[in-house]
């Protein structure tokens, strides 16, 4: 199957008057807080994702992917570039950069690190470390492996409209919580990706 090029940005919508946070705002916000680092436990496998930012027509955009139906887990789900930390990776940042290169062809030397977000444990047994980076453009980025069938830029300011974030109550094991769903054109962002995206928005808005 021929890989799809990057999905055009964005679906028809009327962006709010604001353009969302700037790169300077992102740097300041991340520098002003200490990211929560969760202790490593045998039941959680270390993983890392790349929150790659680039200026777009409606402010900063985040690079997102959609997993193909050829993978064993999370078929069709929207995700950040990233994956499990391998024994050969120097650290979680190296893992996120490696995965981004393998999945969407993003060269590590194009990524300027801005900071990181809180570690995020997932119900699928991973402890995810999100790294925020700036890249000069998303030019040339496209699905580079059978694990990914779409790559698209997501404008952060989409989250400024509360109607774009759906909150569904859930009680796993009797513990009340919310599941976030963020519809965006043909894509539906939910799960850990939606949680990390929303935390990032709350930090930098």
Can you put this structure into words, describing what you see?
There is one protein chain. This protein is an alpha+beta fold and 205 residues long. It has a domain at 23-31 and 43-157: Nucleoside Triphosphate Pyrophosphohydrolase (Alpha-Beta Complex), CATH 3.90.79. 18% of the residues lie in helices and 33% in strands. The protein contains three helices and eleven strands. It has helices at residues 23-31, 92-104, 191-204, and strands at 45-56, 59-67, 78-79, 82-84, 112-116, 120-121, 126-134, 148-155, 166-170, 177-184, 187-190. Strands 1, 2, 3, 4, 5, 6, 7 and 8 form an eight-stranded mixed beta sheet that branches. The longest helix has 14 residues, at 191-204. The model has no long low-confidence stretch (mean pLDDT 89).
The percentage helix is 10-25%
Order of helices and strands: HEEEEHEEEEEEEH
| Count of DSSP-assigned helices | 3
**Major sheet description:** 8 strands, mixed
Q: Compute the CA-based radius of gyration.
A: 16 Å
Report the CATH architecture of the domain at 23-31 and 43-157: Alpha-Beta Complex
Mean pLDDT: 89
